[in-house]
Structure formats: C-alpha cells, structure tokens
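Working notes for the structural subgroup meeting. M.R. asked for a predicted model of this chain before we commit to crystallization trials. I am recording the input and output together here so anyone reviewing the notebook later can reproduce the run.

Input as submitted:
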Amino acid sequence: MEDKYSSKISELTEPASPFEKFAKKVFDKLISEGVPPLPSYYRVYFFNMLEEEPAEFRKQIYEIISLEESNDLEKDFEKEKKLKLSFKYTKELLQHSALIYKTSKSLKELLIKQLQEIEHITSPKILQKIIAQFENKLDLISSKLEKENKVVKDLFSKTVEIIKDIESHSTFDSRYGLYNKNYFIKLLEKEINLISKFSHISSLVVVKLNDKILNNLSQKGKIVANRSLAKMLLRTSRRTDEIGYLGDNIFGMLLKHTDKIGAMKTIERISDMLLNATIFMEGEEIELSIVAGIVEIKEKKEAEEYVKYAISYMKEAEKEEVLYKGD
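Returned structure, recorded in token form:
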C-alpha cells in the first residue's frame, strides 16, 4: 500500500517548522496504515493525533485553525433566533390586525343599528339620550382601536428591524447566485489574515463585461448577460475559490494560493469560454467579452483597499482595450 500513495515521499523537502513536522507525521501515519490520504481521513487523523501533542503546541494549532474556520454554526444559530422572533412578531401582528378589523366591523354594525333606532324618534330628549349613549360607545371603541394601532405599529417596527438586521448579515446575492459584497469582503479579510500568518500568496481578481456590451443592453439585458458571466465564473472556479458580486456589474474572485500568473491564466480561460459560448438575447446573438483587474495579496492591507486597487487596474485595462491589468 505504501508504494500506491507515497512513491515520491523520499523526495519531499524535510519540514522545518513544528507545524510542518506534525503535518508530515500525520501524513506518514496515514500511509503506514494503508489509509488513502484524502482530506476527510486526514482531518480525522490530524485531530486524533493532535491530542497526543504537548498542550502548548495544541494551543498554537487551535489558534491557527481559528483563523481559517469561521463561526458559521453560531451565526446560523443567531440567524435562526432572529427569524423565530420575526415569525413571533408577525403572528402577533396578524392577530392584532384581525382584532382591529373585527372592532371596525362592530363599529359599522353599531352605527347601522343606531341609525335604525333613531329613524322614527321625534322626542328631542330621547334622541339626545341615545346620541349620548352612542358617543360613550364610540369613545370606548376609539380607545380600543388606538391601543391596538399602537401595538401594531410597535410590532411592525420590530419586525422591520429584524428583517434589516438579517439582510445586513446575509451572505448570498439571490440575483446571481453568488456571495454578496459584504460576505465576500469578510472572506477576503480572513484570507489576508492567513497570508500575514503563513506568508503564502493569493490573488484577487475583479471582472466584468465590457462597457461596450453593457451600454447597448437594457437593464433586463444586463442582468441576463451578468448571469451568464456568473455561471461561467462558477463553472471554471476551483472548490477553494471564492466568488462574489461586488455591485455595479462587477464580480470578484478570490483565488487562494494563486499568484498573478495563475490568476492571468484563469481570466484567459474564462475569456476563451465566453467567446466560444453562444448567447441569445431578444432574438439576437451577442458575443460577451470581459475585462479584469488582478492584485496579488502578499501583505497586510485592508480588504477594501485591495478591491479598490483591483478595480482601478480593471478600469485601466478597459481604457487600453486589453483583457486585464495588474500589479
């Protein structure tokens, strides 16, 4: 079994750091026991063997892992709590709205009844008495309606606040089926932190359809064309790549452990696939072409700053009528 999975193990460079030595130790354990070194198996062996390491080393490893892993479960839990609270408020809102409707209906029935009662009354005193009684009933109903309206207004405000909060923490752009800008920026920030820790290189790519194409399309046409580009980005991306919609017809790609050369090849591949694709809009065949900006992520900077640089390169590329520009 050893030859099957590790024919070139002896040629590997000897690991330098304690972390690298431990990683190789896990890999060697998999090989020695004849277990395929797949990610799922490696993860099990990694954490099992980590428990046998000194406490200080375990602490360092878990600190590193915390940079990579997000608290998605906790976020989902908080989101579910907010959704349940929103449903609770919505249910109460409907109940109080139904009560207002019922009260308003009762008011209408009361008015009809009073009109019928006074239709044939000629005595001013009796008429005055009935009117006074009617006014008292109106005051009670009005007070009840005012109270219910206040409750409805409060519940509506709470529901709107929760919905806005959920939207602000959403991760998904429903129009294009990608991450939204807020979440993409968070992923970019996390990768920047990892790079500052491990000193590898990743690349940020921003890409959009050429303005000469977009400017000739209706708003609906732009959405259709952008969806075609979004599907192409998803189709050509690796499992480790992150793709998001940044707004203004611009898409972002975070290519992990990929330098500028690799990013250039990615853009060239996407461009070739788009040129070979046939897209019809409103009965006409159109050719889609893209322009991109590339920035290597090598140092600690703000995520928004990297995005700004990449967009400036993209605009420069479009001005010079080339496929991409970058640092």
